[in-house]
Structures are given as structure tokens and as C-alpha cells.
Queue: 2 jobs
Job 1
Amino acid sequence: MKFKAQCSKLKVNSKRQGSSSNLPAARRLGALALVLPLAFGLCSLAFAANAAPAPNFLFIFVDDQGWSGTSVAMMPGKDFSRTAGFRMPNLDRLAAQGMVFSQAYAGHPKCECSRASLQMGRTTTSLNAISRWSRNWSAPASDSLANTLKRANPNYRAAHFGKWQWLRTPEVFGYDAGDGVTQNEDGDSRDPNDPKQSFGITRRAQAFMEKQVKEGHPFYLQLSYYAVHQTPQALAATLKKYEGAGGGPGGGAKGDKGKGGGRGGGPVMAAMTEDLDTCIGVLLKKLDELGIAKNTYIIYTSDNGGRTEVLKGGKTLCDEGGIRVPLIVTGPGIRSGVYCNEPAVGYDIFPTVLDFVAPGFALPKGVEGGSWKPVLLNAGTGKVARPIDRIVWHHDVEIEHPQTAMRKGNLKLLHYWDTKESFLYDLVTDLSERNNLAKQQPAVAAQMLAELKAHVRAGLGEQKFAALETGKVEQGGRPGDGKGKGGKKKQQ
Ligand SMILES: [Ca+2]
């Protein structure tokens, strides 16, 4: 219909410009010869534009899955970047069809702040969402990913199923359908046929996709699985496959429930991971059945890291173990079976989605992520351009050392606010962060520390910055609850 309307419009315009009727016949024919191909060309362009439907987005967001917590090697040929005993045939298929990012990060080493960062497309420091108690975010919910997407193209519908973890509802953040305000405990299912609610979430996702296809809406569907967070749950039939003498194929001893979704974790972790993969298979099948597989981008990642074989630290820490996560993306224009070495972070998803839907659309002020599109459509080469070329993580509550880390290029600076120690690592040559270069490259370390501090100060304000500088950050639970400094022991 649009195609017809635009062509008709062209006709009317050419009539209005019809001074050509006063021209001699030969010149009129000549003018016609010029106008017709032009008109046809424009109509063809209009048709081409209309022929490419708006893409759908299926975002599979896993909880607490460490960098090596899947069956897919995050670095080509490196067994330490996967868990060989985990069975995830559908994720294997997804990786073979798309792009695996070797240097992908969550926006924060813990659940709720990572999620806030992703919804708003910026660091937790700039957003002032640095703990579960943060309420005074510096950007309004109207600037969220889903709300911005719907402003860019009002035909989109958005849904969020699964774990949410903030007090304000998903609806406020632009989601048309969802499970409401849910917390970790909601994932501890009492239904033996729906461990971690993984299958229920998947069923709701299928219904949502069916509805949108029927009603002609492109969609952004965010599935926030409770798996593989504690407490692990799995279908009895799946668990049976992994139980046996000596523990499960995940590498952990029998009875070891594991922490952080990294390597190991025992039979129940392996089974929970396979159940999650079964759900991925159901979603892929549904995309095929609905005839939208070729027009849907699938993003698979985790909200924070976990214990791994080679990375230092784990969940809650700004070491690589706490922040580096699996990331796989498939979709139209993405070459199959490609590894990408460009650093990516969860808060890039916002500008990436907008870049695919409405290139050039003005993002809300303060978005710090960059679009992956140039990398995705160029077989993993190219750059992710962020407004400022850096990635920042900050964590200062319920932790022994309040800390901030900043990555620029291959270098990462990790700063402990209480001890005033800074560690400088080259992540390309030192994946395990063992070789502190701060003393060898003092000028670089000082420059990066100055930038890190200026960023934290601008985001969190003078009072908080002063508390960090003087080591007087509240550590236990709600600010002002009197628990004082303490928190968890250093997990290194
Ligand atoms: Ca988490």
C-alpha cells in the first residue's frame, strides 16, 4: 500500500511541475525520458525500503553464567573458555550460525546493577545505580531501551519475561507484556515440570511472538532466565543423565552446588544448563514455525560472570572473572561461525538495537554504549564506537575493597578505593591479570586513574566521591543501616 501511495505522489508532483506542457513535443518527450526513470527509480527505492521488514530481537539473558559456563568456547580452540561436559546443542548451533564475542562484558559484576545498565545503555556510575538500594537514577525510565525503540518505531512491541529485580515495573520501562516485579526467589519453582521457571518463561515467549506475528508487529523480546543462578533446579529426567559416581560432567564433585555459574558446579548445574538449552531449542523452532527466523536477531549473554579456570575472581568483583561473560549474536547479515575480538559490553545492546531499527535516530542524552552493527555486519572486523572510548565497572557495597575498573583498548586499570592501590593489566597478553604493569608504566596508570576518578566523580557526585576517596563507604546492606565496613571477604 505504501509503495502505491508513494508512486502516486510522484505522479501528482510531476503534474504540478507540469510547465513542460508549454515545451515543444521533442523536449517534452526528452523531459519524460528523464522523469520516468527517475520516478521509477524512486519507486523502486521505496519498494526496496518497504520490502525489508523491521527486524525482531530475541534477547536471551542468562543469570550468573560465567564466561566459560557454556558448551561454546568463547575463544577459538580454547577449552578453558568453555565447559566441555555441558550439553548445549542448541547454543552450539546458534554459535555456528552467528558471531561469538571473545571479549564480552556485563555492565556490572552483579545482577541488578548490570540489568539497570543494560536497560538504560550506560554505566552504573553515570546512571547512579550502584547497588540494589539505588533509587535516584540520573536518567528517567522514559529514556530506556524499550521506550526509545518505540519512539523510533511505534509499531514495535516489547516484552520482558523472567527476573526483573527493580521496584519500578517493567511497564514503566516500556514493556507491553511481562511477569511484573520479580526477584531471585521467584525463580525457585515449586513445579517439578518447570525448574527455575525456564519452561514457563519460554511458553510465555512463544505466545508473545505468535501474537506479534499475527498482529503485524515487530518485537523486542527480552527473556531474563533465572537459570543458572542459585539455587540450582533441573528436570528430574535431565538430572538423571548427569548423576553418577564421581560427579557430573560439568567438572564439579557430586553434591557441589557450585557458585557463579562458571566451570563445574556438579550434576544439578549441568542439568539446569541443559534445561536452559532445551528452552533455546524451543525458541529457535518457534521462530522457524512463524517464518521470522531470517528476520530476527538473537542475542545470548549473561548478567555477570562467575568462577572460571583462567580468569581471576568471580561474581561481585571487577576482575575479569566477575565481568567477562559469554556473548553470541545471530541474525540477518551476520556471517556464520565467526569469532570477534572487539570488546563489547551489555550496555551496548541499547544503541545496537536502535542502530538496526532506526540508524541515526537520536539516542537519549547520556547513553554511553556503542553499536555492534558495524562489527556484526563486517564478519567481526571494525570497531564499536562509544561516545567516549572506554568501558567502566564500579562496585562498592557488600565487598571488601570498594573498586572501579576501566578498560581502554587492551589496557585495564583496576582501582581499590580503600587501599588506594591501582593495578594495570594488558588483557591481550595477560588474560589472567597476573602481571601488574602499574609500576612499569606509571604515566599510563596515572592518566587512566585520573580519567577513572573524573568519571566516578561526575556520575556519583561530590559526596559519594569523597566517601570513596576517604574509605568511608557504607558496606553492609542499606546505606545507614549501621552495619559498617565488612562485607564479603576478598574473593581472589
Ligand atoms: Ca546475576
Note: Confidence is low (pLDDT under 50) at residues 1-50, 245-263, 479-492.
Job 2
Amino acid sequence: MELLNGTGLWSMAIFTVIFILLVDLMHRRHRWTSRYPPGPVPWPVLGNLLQVDLSNMPYSLYKLQHRYGDVFSLQKGWKPMVIVNRLKAVQEVLVTHGEDTADRPPVPIFKCLGVKPRSQGVILASYGPEWREQRRFSVSTLRTFGMGKKSLEEWVTKEAGHLCDAFTAQAGQSINPKAMLNKALCNVIASLIFARRFEYEDPYLIRMVKLVEESLTEVSGFIPEGTTLIINLSSVLKDETVWEKPHRFHPEHFLDAQGNFVKHEAFMPFSAGRRACLGEPLARMELFLFFTCLLQRFSFSVPVGQPRPSTHGFFAFPVAPLPYQLCAVVREQGL
Ligand code: HEM
């Protein structure tokens, strides 16, 4: 009891602070000797946690990149991380040094659950024979089931029709289309795997969408745990040294002087190199068919009294739009 009174308490507090500062100093020495790229000075114990706005990570990283350069360091607690920004540096890391940067940090929950390397799936798996085998298997299975083929296009077109019907049912109202879009995407995967789709009210489909959403959030929570290298794809998609109007939707970015489509090397929403998205052909097909179908059938507007959708993303995997409302009105034929 005596120990917790007055001077005893003070001595204990001072001892604890000195102990923490010493441990912190040991970690800092490791950082100094390892010669990390520049970055903001980390706080003892917390690292740079208070210097980044977790609710708007892309903007925080954007400001840091302008201050410290395209490759800079941050510390999450005592864990050092290197953030890579803009086309040139990202290409160098993902493509030129692809072999050295294709690994993924161990996932603590996998260890706790005793998940074996062969059961880690593709996205989070370490770069090794198990990942290679799972990736090859996934690509060939997706192809067998129709990825990149006409048969899948029919499923996606059919689903786009159902999506349009769901929009029609709520035409003229202020809606958040997220749930409908997620159900349509889940149905495409269901078409691939089960060769059938589900009605949007079907409890099974609703459960599936919820599970996918939850698992994605979990993943984003675990990624930073062991991550030392963070590839900031947003900084490539909005690279001011590459795009004419980097912060605007500007279709001319992808058109030549004659109005023909041109590919742009900085357009890499599916990443690049060995760990690039393997579902890209399917995702592109879905985006094209869903968008064209919706835009042909409806005029979209911001409902009266609602703000314009924000261009800031919600920082998860993948980055998602912040909630927004829109109003879809059925187009008159020929307009
Ligand atoms: C618009 C939709 C999509 C976007 C923007 C997207 C984006 C990405 C990105 C940026 C990565 C790299 C992640 C990393 O570096 O760790 C990735 C990986 C991956 N994506 Fe996608 N993706 C999309 C749709 C899909 C679909 C439809 C599938 C499945 C059919 C899929 C399956 C995968 C897999 C399995 C990986 C891990 C690849 C590996 O680590 O080897 N994605 N995706």
C-alpha cells in the first residue's frame, strides 16, 4: 500500500517512463542504423500514428509524399513501414524488383488458427510454391468456368438486366445503390460457381454479401500488422506528373487526338507485377456491362438536398466510396 502513495507512486511512474524511453531508444537505434528513407519523426511508442489521419489516409499520404518525396518511411508503433508513391517508384518496386517485393507479411490470425500455407488462399499468401500453385489453380478454374469467354459475358449481361430492374423498382427515389451493386457482383460469382443466380431478396444471397463485406474488412485490419512496404496505388492513379487533370474524371486521359482509346501505363487499379489482380478480366467485363446497361436505361442525378458524392475513398481493401445517395430516372426511349 505504502508503495502506491506519494513518492512511491512518483518513483514508479518515473521508472516506467524511463524504461519505455529506453526501449524506444533501442528501436530508434535500429531505425537509424537501417537507413530508412526520410519521414516524419516518430513519437515514442506511438510512432507516427498521431501524424496520419486514419479517416482520410489517401490525403494524409499525399501530404507526406509532397513533404518527404515519393518513397518515405512511417512507423506504426515500433514497426517501420515504407510507403511507395507515384508511377515511377511503384513500377520500380512492383515490376523491376517484382521478385523481391512479391511476398506478404505473415497474418497473425492464420498462426493462431493453425492455418497451413496451402490453406492461405492467394491474396494473403506468402510468395512461395503454395501461392504459385493456388494462383495457377484459381486462374485456370476461373477460365474453365468462363472468365474471358462469351459464356460468362451472357451471365454478366443477364445480371446487368436484373440490376437495372432493381434500379427501376426504386426509380425517382433517393437511394444508396451499394447493396444492389454488391448483390449483382455476388451473383456473377454465384453464376460461375453454382451456375445459378439468386433473387436480390433471397436470404442466402444477403448472407453471402454480408460475409464477403465482413471478410474484406477483416483483411484490411490485418494487412498493416506485418506490412513493411505499402504501395499507394491512389498516388499513381492521381499522379500529377503523369495525368493532365489528376483529380478529375476526365475521359480525355484515355483518348488520343482522333478520339481513339489509348491505354495508359499509370492506370493500374489492379496493381502490377506478380501479385496483380487475377480477376481483372472478370472485373472489367462486369464494370463495362453493368455501367453501359445502367447508363442506357437511366439518367442519374444527385437527389435534391443531398451533397455530391465525395471523391475521397474509404481506406480499406479495396478502397471504397464513402456512402452517397443518387436518384435514377428511367430514360425515355431514344434519349
Ligand atoms: C474492380 C474490381 C477489382 C479491383 C479494383 C481489384 C484490385 C486488386 C488489387 C489492387 C490487387 C493487388 C492486391 C495486393 O497487392 O495485395 C488484387 C489482387 C487480387 N484480386 Fe482483385 N480486384 C478486383 C476484382 C477482383 C475479382 C472479381 C476477383 C476474383 C474473381 C479478384 C481476385 C483477386 C485475387 C485472388 C488477388 C490476389 C492476387 C495475388 O496475390 O496473387 N479481384 N485485386
Note: The radius of gyration is 24 Å.
